[in-house]
Amino acid sequence: MQTLSLSRTLISAAVASAFALAAVNASADLSSRYVDNDGDMIADVPSDESQWVDPDTLVFAYTPVEDPAVYADVWSDFLDHLSEATGKKVQFFPVQSNAAQQEALRAGRLHVAGFNTGGVPVAVNCGGFRPFAMMAAEDGSFGYEMEIITYPGSGIEAVEDLEGRQLAFTSETSNSGFRAPSALLRSEYGMEAGEDFETAFSGSHDNSILGVVNEDYDAAAIANSVGKRMISAAWLTKVITRLFIPPIPSPPLPTVWLIT
């Protein structure tokens, strides 16, 4: 199997800007099922304690990833800690789609969850989700970048070359896989999905990556954290090389990868 390498070009998109884009695209109105008396745009904990739930088993789910079953082991230490801290059994629930995770939360079958960036506003407004923490490295750093990838020989050497081609997104709830690239292409390049380029929805970042590798898609918008995980796990047998594009000044924008 070939050694895999990554070289990013164009400009970087920090996850901080992704958060802002998610907020712009989401309604600030909570479902009528909830109240927000303190005005923090998050559902209040019921003042009537009889409305609180106290399940014997807490169910945890992480946003859909390459192989949900694998993440049961990745989260095992956290689940053990949660069980020890609460005195309850904790069950890992592998979800296959963002929609399934959102519905499980709304229906009360999911108690603790890690949502993708773009899904947080939906979870808050429709499922009563109360965000309280985010993942970070030991040094306090956090975030990922949205990147657009293509394959060699595709004829795409700059973002403008996407015109008339097909760009794969992941799902409409994904920030890096849909909202951020859509906003960027519209604001910085005047390109509208369905007008200037065709779209497809792969369902996940790994599907988009593999679709580009197999040349099923001309290009795809992905979260680079997923690409790095797939490469480190040797899921890809292709080498990602540098596609040179002059940098664009801030605000930070995405990078483009060329897969060879």
Automatic annotation (TrEMBL):
Signal sequence bounds: 1-28
Question: Keyword Signal, does the record have it?
Answer: yes
Q: Please provide the record's keywords in A-Z order.
A: Signal
The UniProt entry, under Pfam families, shows: Phosphonate-bd (PF12974)
Question: Can the keyword Signal be found in this entry's annotation?
Answer: yes
Record InterPro entries: PhnD
Instruction: Give the UniProt family note.
Output: Belongs to the phosphate/phosphite/phosphonate binding protein family.
| PANTHER family membership | PHOSPHONATES-BINDING PERIPLASMIC PROTEIN
Descriptive protein name: Uncharacterized protein
